[in-house]
Amino acid sequence: MKKYRKDILSEQVRPKDDLSPEPAYEFDPLPELIKDSATGLHSSRRDFLKLCGYSFALAALSSCRSKISKAIPYVIAPNEITPGDALYYSSSYVNGSDYCSIIVKTRDGRPIKIEGNPRSSMTRGGTNARVQASVLDLYDMERFKEPISNGVPVSWDEADGEITARLKKISYDHGSIVLLTPTVYSPSTEAVITDFIEKFPGTAWVRYDAVSYSAMLEANLISFGRQVIPRFHFDKADVIVSSGADFLGTWLSPVEFTKQFSSRRDPEGSMNYLIQYEAGLSVTGCTADKRIQIRPSQEYALLLNIYREVVKLTEGRESNAPSSPADVRDIAVKLTSSPGRSLVISGSNVKDIQLLVNEINRYLGNIGTTIDFSRYMRTHEAIDSGMADLVSRMNAGDVDALIFWNVNPAYTWYDRDAFTKGLKKVGIAISLSGSPDETSSLVQYICPDNHYLESWNDAEPEKDLFSLMQPVISPLFNTRQMADTLLKWSGSAISYYDFIRSYWAVNMLPRQKEYSDPVAFFDHSLQEGVFETVDKNVRPAALLTRPVSHVFDPSLLKTGDDREALFEVVLYEPVAIGEGRQANNPWLHELPDPVTRICWDNYASISGLQAKENSLTEGDLIDIGGLTFPVHIQPGQAYGTLSIALGYGRKVCGMAGNGVGSDAWPFLTMDNGNVSYTRTLGRIGKTGSGYLFAQTQGHHSMEGRALIRETGLNEFKVNPSAGNELHEHYTRHAKSLYKEREYPHHHWGMVIDLSKCTGCGACVIACQAENNVPVVGKEEVQRVHEMHWIRIDRYYSGDDMDPEVGFQPVLCQHCENAPCENVCPVGATNHSGEGLNQMIYNRCFGTRYCNNNCPYKVRRFNWFNYTGAGTLRGNLRDKAGMTGDLRRMVLNPDVTVRSQGVIEKCSFCIQRIQAAKLKAKTEKRALYPGEIRTACSQSCPANAIIFGDLNDKESEMNRLIRSGRNYNLLEELFTKPSVNYLTRIRNRT
Amino acid sequence: MFDPYLAKSLRYILSVILLTGNSLPLLPSDLQEADTVFSRKEFSAEELVRGERLFYGLAYPAEMTVDCEKCHNTKWSDSLNWNPDALEISVKYLNKSGADLQAVLLRPKGKKMAEVHNNFQLTNEDVVLIKAYMDRFVDVGIKKQKPVVTNLLLLIISFVVFSISLTDLIIKRIFRNSRFNLMLLTVSSVVMIWILAAGAIAFGRARDYSPDQPVKFSHYVHAGQNKTDCNYCHYSARSAKSAGIPAGNICLNCHFLVRSGTRSGVTEISKVTGAYDNNEPVKWVRIYRLPDFVFFSHAQHVTAGEIACESCHGDVKTMDRLYQVPDLSMGWCIKCHDTRKVNLTNTYYKTYFSGIYNDFTAGRTDSVMAAVTGGRDCGNCHY
Predict the structure, then answer these.
(1) What residues pair up with A903 in beta bridges, in sequence order?
(2) Which residue in A492, A501, A904, B203 is a FRET match for A175, CA 20 to 30 A apart?
(3) Pairing of strands B284-285, A829-831
(4) 0.95 surpassed by complex ipTM
(5) A165 touches chain B (CB under 8 A)
(6) CB distance A84–B352 less than 8 Å?
């Protein structure tokens, strides 16, 4: 068996024969509450007992039924609302360039959960962590609550009056007004902006995306004559070559791409092959069949070599290329042997690299097959040079009015000093953003936007794929939607809602034949959430088909010997926090990074070899390029590189996000008109001080056992249970002295396909939202008190410096012979007749014996009162503001909010099982196939988690269980889990 | 000392004098006088006593006036009194002038009120004094019954007995017979344990809980006399977790037209219609309430379980004042789950309990209890 280890650190810091105690970290194991020295109090044991007595008395008294509870009905009950029943609305998640078609679950008028919309052909029911967490942003007390003029709250009428007067004057004086937004792909909003520009002549509309794809846009204009990002079809590609593009984690449209990619990860079907060239270990790199470490400076040389090999193989023509950082002959053969069924992508924001990628794809015949320009993406359209021009115009004093919406250049722009300096020269700066950020703290007027769950809108994330957004709650604060504000300023009398309806009646209605009535059409589209049309009459604009013989630019090859000693910093968008828009979201902060398993932080990932050379250990603070970052030793990090996540170190966003992590945006540079996300820096300096990460994986190590079983595709084809030989062995020896349990009616179970799981973390946040899983904060995670019911374990195997990575979601296994059940002294956890390992919170009194006895370590203990459900005041522990009245609105009323002192764990979303069973009973029918889906299974963009009834022998789940790939976690313990895993198949061909 | 006959005759003479004064036509000066009377704020103790006597109908002969307390409670009552109690009236008129009270008192608009408030002979000053007396209810409130203290007394007594006999047994030895001591100890400790255990079991449970509601709503009138189906108002009981407290518009479906009740008159109904007109909900006091960790669904019991409302809520049709019939303890739930038969002809049960269903159709079993189909799984209610 291969050797698995939790992280490289344990090997490096503590050699095997070193029996000295663990290195002591400088953190206090006691919470402030217990420390008397801080308050100057001295309490004796007697005082403690007295307090105990009082608190018992108080607890007993507070549980008396002294409070009269009221039952307050509606005055006029809305037709659709039944108290206690959920209502679902189709909508769209739009946050900058992030898009997802969603279904919002509301209970009693408040949205509590986001689910994927399976009707969308783009996202196909998938979601990701950010989408799942967005519902919490709605209940953010720190959003702007009303319009603000120079720091003073004003009414909308006052703000509108003052602003329109000034804008009119500027427009009359032929001044310049600039509207700065991210890429806007809502057709109606575009129309509103066009109206606004007509009303205020001289208005310029600048689009700026903090995470930019402008090099790709510019390259496509040169290569194909179209400045768009095409639609990628990962499902049609047999061979995928990705150079630094984390398309399963963050690149362009990760939910869509994960859906596509995972549909081809079925070893029984035709499995695709993914090779990833990258510096830092990304989610895509972990999932890749082959991963090769390269430094960003080597990317150009690598792609040139692929280009040369491809040209040689397709045309037999030799071309010029420098020496390659990796052997690319094999991959070139693979690429050319599947013409039109391969895909080469690059995550670089350098135009020449993207041009080269375009040429390779053209030679491979991928244009029109896996790369589709007829239905291009509209979510990324901003060109960096536009923003650069704006900043220089601002500094020249050419901008009289600047209107921001949903952009934060004072934080994300590479030259933020120039931007802030320029902003001071702007006559009037107005922010339309809904929540505080670094930029809006510098403006005169703030006219806050609604949250997207309070807004009407439409979107066109891909050409001819339309999507509607509808409000599921009235605005919580005195805010107004950005488009409504612009309509008002342009003097329009109609609301944006009416605007959208009339826009759809005029522009969308003629695109279909089913409905002739605009109202019926709009209502139908709204219910579906999406409206897709392929107008066959309109041919896509012709692409340039003439192959541009690529001119090789030697200046891009930074491989000089003198640079070997330098560090290349790779700045990447982290999976959870992204570019920092949702930085005040504690759920996202507490989601451990899929690869490093660190939460509430960013850090500089460094290769183990280099750490040794520089005598750095985990958590050492280093000084690089004038900024300070803690070091994280990352297996698989390319030598000579440092990977640092963007999106952290926000200063103005709210209680949960302020000052979390460090700001890495100042590392960005401008290179040939595009923002560069890599940078070469001098030596790193040690500051001498250390830092403790809140890392979750080390605490849950299941080292040395066959946890993730994996095999190659070829081996699998010969023997379907390859790599899973142990399963047969254990099943044969599994004999019980006791009578087997019987589950005659239902037996709930789950299958997790390790070949499909990408470790993205959508399930973790979905579970957190569904099951009221508390946020504990960084210090509590450091004390191993994290509460997630489902975690994704990450294991490295093979070479320390270049490991293979496996992900394994672990949740309560609902064992038939559950070790936890036997040890509970009060029977608070026991087995149901439907195969569920039940956890009864009101019975639990917190011995934690079950936690101790669980071999999977999936039980969680409420050390403190994290959600405000407790009765003892001093036990409230709320570092992220999750117990405020507004934040608590996100809690699911169908799940008990646990108080301190009780154990909790995955329940297989029993509230969903109960609801579905009840529905079937009241409708006097059997359950539909796939009617019950747990939150994790519903949210998974890779379809890696399947939930169902093990008694239903016809189901897809049972077919997978009968396959040779099926095994249980720690099956040697004979716990007989209801959760099954499928061996991971790597395509090593 | 006090001669009732003398008092009665004096009262009569007084009333004759006042009557003549009252029957004179009103002059402008009288109106002026009325204004000054109604705007009075300060009252002497004697005047307040007179107000009290007027309220209890003692100031005038019985045929000229009535005892207000007969209809308008001054004490808490566990039976439903349709008429507003003294507190309610005093709260309503606290910030209004005596003229408003007089208008309602002497020239009532409602049919039922007009029948009772008949032949009242009260002067402006009388009305003002009655109001002055009634204002005290705002501070004093309606006196509630004192809680029964027998159990607490018994507990204290047995504790004292216990301590004395224990002390005696160990130290003093007054009683020569230690067996007597031991007997005392046993009896007192049994009593104490019994009281404490009974108290602990009843802790947090509220059988017979019957709070005052903001509107004197009678289930007897609605479900009993008028035979309204439970599901008309509690319409979500069949389909949702919550049976639902009817919204204002449901009440108004009928009370848009029905503005006066045979027993209640207009007062109570006008509270509902008034709240609706002011776009305010009626803030009912919740009676049946389960802890937060219990997930109970009406749909499961009413539709899937085919249980009649009365099985749990008692004979609501006869209740003027609704009260909690069961104690809502888990034992009560489980007892029913153990004894309640499941309708196996439901396709859901037919599909998933095919073994039991086949036994049932073949006559091998005659019934299946809810406990067999998952009614005893903890996770069915606690999650």
Answers:
(1) A861
(2) A492
(3) unpaired
(4) no
(5) no
(6) no
